TrEMBL record:
The lineage of its organism: Eukaryota, Fungi, Dikarya, Ascomycota, Pezizomycotina. Keywords: Hydrolase, Membrane, Transmembrane, Transmembrane helix. It comes from Hyaloscypha bicolor E. The chain crosses the membrane at residues 12-35. This is Alpha/beta-hydrolase. Pfam families: Abhydrolase_6.
Amino acid sequence: MIRSITGEMVAIIFKYGGISAAILVGLYAGLLGLLSTSAFQTHVVYLHKIQMTWFKDLDVPESFGFMRNQVTTFFLESSDGEKLHAWHILPVELYRKHEVALLGEPAGVVSDITSRHAFKLLRNDPDARLILHFHGAAGTVGSGYRVPNYHALSAGQPGKIHVLTFDYRGFGRSTGTPSEDGILLDAHAVIDWALNVAGIPPNRILVFAQSMGTAVSAAISNYFALKSPPAVFAGTVLVAPFIDAATLASSYRLVGTIPLLSPLAKFPVLFNYLQRFMRDKWSTKDRIAQYIRTNEANGEMYRMTLIHAEDDYDVPWDHTTTLFWHAVNTTTLVGISYDELEEKKTERKKDLGAAGSVMEWHTEHGIIREEILKSGLHDVIMGNPVITMAVMRIFQALDPSFTC
């Protein structure tokens, strides 16, 4: 009797377990089908419809904790006509010195930023520095840990370091729909504004990026390095970068637990086939390698810092170690294998204990720095002192007198 009941229970479990498995497989197959479409890919890759500003008005930066007119809100225009919503953020000490004049101006979106006092403080100060900020996927200029990030960027010299941040097309209040080609036009528009409207030379501009923004900044920095004459910025800081879109997809887990394409990565033939349907490649490894190679060939001074936390569950930290190798590999005539570089790290890197480790690779023309932190997650890290230090390290390398 007992055996009979047990047998029936096993049969029921297999029956309904099989149905559940079939449903899950069917849903996953449906997801893959959707991912092969351009429109669905756009939403999954960029998450641009997820704003995470909790009903705050992006045209009122004060609602994000800034002082009145510390942020100038305006629109840039890309070469194909998209309107890009941007914030010009004054460092707090500079704001304090000019508070009366700044408070005397009307608040809100401005149609002509060149008429504003804050803009003139940037353009007319030969010691001013400008950080161009490229944020990650999802959200807006005011989302999550981005506001603390802006404070950390200027904290090392709060009287001189301005920040320009913006939303890519389709994000926040910017018009259009995101794509790799389109976002690169947006990045070009921002750099054009910095160079030609604000009049800041490349050696006073630092490019900062996090997550998806690292792919954007690597691409646009490479583009300007390839120009004739080249335009090489003071430095580039990449936080939580990824190798390329396909590699990220093969390891990415939604909220750190739900795999999207990682199960398929175990079947290389199938995964490689699906890569054909990926519209936007975002090959950071190739662009970083070309950027370093170009600067080495041109004799241009460059500085690149890669930062990643070991507890980052969105982008695994080994993406940074791989990118560091791609960058270093281009600086040698015969190349260096990944394992060879790892051996050199055991000899040269600084062990900082609970803070992580640092490895620098020096050439005649540049410095490539890898910082692997023990903690910091994917976003929290952006407001940490390591960001302030990375910025000041680059600016002071070019000008030792640039201090508080």
